[in-house]
Design a protein that fits this description.
binds L-rhamnitol; alpha/beta; eight-stranded parallel barrel; globular; binds zinc ion; TIM Barrel; 14 helices; 418 residues; single chain
Length: 418
Amino acid sequence: MMKEETIRKAYEIAKERYAALGVDTDKVLAQMQDFHLSMHCWQADDVTGFEARKGGLTGGIQVNGNYPGKARNINELRDDILYAMSLIPGKHRLNLHEIYGDFQGKFVDRDEVTPEYFESWIQWGKEHGIKLDFNSTSFSHAKSGDLSLSNPDKSIRDFWIEHSKRCRAISQAIGEAQQDPCIMNTWVHDGSKDITVNRYMYRELLKDSLDQIFEHRYDWMKDCVESKVFGIGLESYTVGSNDFYTAYASKRDMMITLDTGHFHPTESVADKVSAMLLFVPELMLHVSRPIRWDSDHVTIMDDPTMDLFSEIVRAGALNRVHYGLDYFDGTLNRIGAYVIGSRAAQKCMLRALLEPIATLREYELADRKFQRLALLEECKNLPWNAVYDMFCLMNNVPVGESFIAEVEKYEADVTSKR
Ligand code: RNT
Ligand code: ZN
């Protein structure tokens, strides 16, 4: 393990190196303290939740792997998340899905859910200083089928409209209790496997359902809508496509969720930031890692994620973006997955904040293309890692790879005994 003295020394050198480029690392560390991820609750148990129902994961999403020790109930999930958080510097939010309500073994159908099932989450959040976000759940239910909010069958549509309205009321209750807006994401899996000839009709139905859902105005919750390219088993058509939601959200002046797994391999999610923020007030992110499809691999410090965070900082949009994570991988230690993905997202943000942006902009405006590219390349080998180590040290969490042993210890003591 690295000695504290070594970390401090390395940081001082890094600080000087960055200062020479006009970057104040102390200020960046303060900004990092204020960069809150919204950690998704569903990595801990492979998107299972606590509904008293039978049946697997549906809705075109899929978890692969059977790594032992997944959280089996609400207490285990809470323990796991708190433990993961103890290995991630800073203070973070938790993003809940409706199926993670505290149902206490009782069957509560989706159109019956009320804030009371989230009361213990609110208390838990208060106790640990963790703010909550929320999602309605269209998948893994007898009425999910291929179509929910866009189903031509009015009774099914109404069922999901009711569910979504109730989820907004729950989000409002959470937001009010925590005195900070709860962000509720609306993603529905609606689509079809094969050539679809009634595309317009389903979208019209979806639009109408959404209009009903969003009719009521709340002051302690914020809505966002999330698109997708395709789902597994729903490959030919997605009702809530990117174009659909972009148009819908701009018309309604609402937030859009950009899930980094939901775009074509050659499409840049980073480039969407400056294009979309001109028309929508805010963005929600689901930071993921697509491989071949929306595979929801654990987030790592890859180029698309670094580009995305750089674009946010460059657009001066730090406060107009909410930083959710969204991946689920059951092939490896799930706590480790939280820590790797959260730390990776933070490192991408840190590197974005450490960019000598003023000089880069000057170069660009003066058409000094060589200088711009050269400095961008050089930024890659600046000692940003010393700043991240300092950030961990300041937050009293393991520095560098030393969290591996901690995760192993938790596995030996807790998750392997399940
Ligand atoms: C699915 C969407 C959605 C889900 C979660 C579980 O493609 O990304 O956000 O992953 O709601
Ligand atoms: Zn998502």
